[in-house]
Predict the structure of Cytochrome c oxidase accessory protein CcoG.
Amino acid sequence: MANDFLADEGGSQNTVELSLYEVRRKIYPRSVSGVFAKWRLILVLVTQILFYGLPWVQWNDRQAVLFDLVSRKFYIFGLVLWPQDIIYLTLLLILSALALFLFTAVAGRLFCGYACPQTVYTEIFMWIERKVEGDRFARIRLDGEDWPWSFHKWRIKITKHAVWILIALWTGFTFVGYFTPIKVLSAELIAFTLGPWQAFWLLFYSFATWGNAGFMREQVCKYMCPYARFQSVMVDKDTFVVTYDKTRGDPRGGRAKAANHKELGLGDCVDCSICVQVCPTGIDIRDGLQYMCIGCGACIDACDQVMDKVGYDKGLIRYTSERAMLEHMDNKKARHYIFRPRVLIYIGIMSVLLIAFASSVFLRNPLRVDVMRDRGALAREVEGTKIENVYRLQIMNSSENPMNVSIVATGLPGMQILSSQGKEISELIVNPSSNLLIPVKLRVAIEDVKAGTHPINFDIEATESGPNASKTLRVRDEKSSFIVPR
């Protein structure tokens, strides 16, 4: 608190206390139905079916989507990604950012209003709250009961939080199931043998879901989400956003349904404040576009219902652009300005990146080879007639079929390639989605080479085997060097 001292005419001083921080006023959103409410319901169902269902989908006798941090492998259906494939993750993140910019340039905070996890879980928790405690006014009355709480209030609150916690735990369990095989996780959970990190992240994510969706809600959107702060940079006069038509709606005021509001000097807004009551962030859209607005369209559904009841045209609050409001355009004409230069640039960049990503994945060679020299012994003389260099070959098979691999060394005459036991290396087998690290020796006759460093190649060929194998010949040509001491 901060104290301001004010002096009156008699010279006395009065102390006025001003709060430095805004005290949170709990919001009780009213239920609403309509076009945008249906879209929110559809997106909630789609996103949660995907989130909760994907870990249980099987692919080639394994979990279809699994981010195995211990083995450092990401499985996404038929695609197996290794740490060396970080470029794919980078492309996906860039595409996600560009998609967010594109959606915002076209229609504001679409992601926030319909697909953001904070919005989705807040919708789920509010739906449970309405079912257990009742709609807006019932919840206000219930929370207004003074201490001591009645048995009725205790029962309702405990029931609500019990359901919330069950959903939060299920969400945390599913989240961890993307990083630990969910069937293994289920067995460990039932047997109470979860590892410390698994238990920590399950409880942490569950607590975050319960706290964010049950208590913080709009505070996350207002104060924690950075997107709310920089969305104004991506919105221009042709962006479709939730807008109140001041020209048509003002001056506001109540009136009888049968009255001619034009003769009374009133606009179409009946000042019922239902648009405020349904807003999940508690703002009044009639005050203009605000960074707290998540673009969910709840106020549009509510206002259209009121307009129907009083017999006025719908669309007092609607998705439209600033240009359309200033030039009195209908939405059909305003949509002609959607495909403006910045939107076309976003679409063009995204198209190029998508084509590059798809082409790279399609043409990706699942055979990878790294050649590392043995630093402990660069070169040595063996059997009195030969020079030997030692290398370590790491052969990675990122396909889901075994590979039959052959290795040939070229670059010097009469070069032999031997295993660490000194035997000729023939064909090797590399298991699916695994890597093989083998030491190899290269030998050449002393009389056949001169002193110095000679470039050589390791030519690796591999053929996939197995019932689902493509039988395609995979080839890698890795360069290295052979050292002959002076």
Remarks:
- The chain has 16 helices and 18 strands.
